[in-house]
Amino acid sequence: MRIHFAVFTSLLLSGAICLPARAEDAVAPQAAPDAPPVAVTKQARLDQLFSDLKRERNERAAERIAGNIWNEWFQSGSASIDLMMQWSQKAIEGQKFDVALDFLDQVVTLQPTYAEGWNRRATVHFMMKNYGKSMSDIDHTLQLEPRHFGALSGLAQIMALTGHKQSALEAWQRVLAIYPMLRSAQDQVATLSEELAGEGI
Question: Which UniProt keywords apply (predicted)?
């Protein structure tokens, strides 16, 4: 079975580019003229984005929504954590994986509730073929954000690479339940379903 390594890494790292939402996609809350602005929490923004992502049937519009989700995930709320994440990204781009891990170890130690720190470290372990460590970090990510389609995609890739096709299929199906228009997940579900059917499973 052909596994597209780039699919996983691009999913997990693509959020670095901001994808602006269309003006017509924005829904402003209605308030009285003199009322103070209503503060919307990060969780509420994510809940709305995931709701939109699940309903969207246009692939490009879904990509924009997914990009906005990544942007929310990347916001740690800490300038020092954000800086270490930037340094880790530069190290990854330079294939200095040990350096990236040093930064990411600090990120998850200093802010263990920041899901994207665990997810980024899972990505680095995956690139280093440390699949056990990657799966451990994916588990941490999913405990903090069960809808993390990037982490689920990574889990699916690892399951496929280690010969667990049924588990890989189930992970991709979980991705599609969250992000139905993700083409790579659609393709993998189709491919794995055919392969498992051919094997009589």
Answer: Signal, TPR repeat
Alpha-carbon distance 82 to 130, whole Å? 25
State pLDDT tens for residues 138-163. 999 999 999 999 999 999 999 999 99
| Number of structural domains in the chain | 1
- Give the residue ranges of DSSP H helices in the chain: 5-13, 42-55, 59-74, 79-93, 97-110, 115-127, 131-144, 149-161, 165-178, 183-198
Does the residue 27 lie in any domain? Answer: no
**Domain annotation covers residue 37:** no
What torsion do the CA atoms of 9, 99, 17, 45 make, to the nearest 10 degrees? 90
> Taking the C-alpha atoms of 40, 41, 44 and 46 in order, what is their torsion angle to the nearest 10 degrees?
110
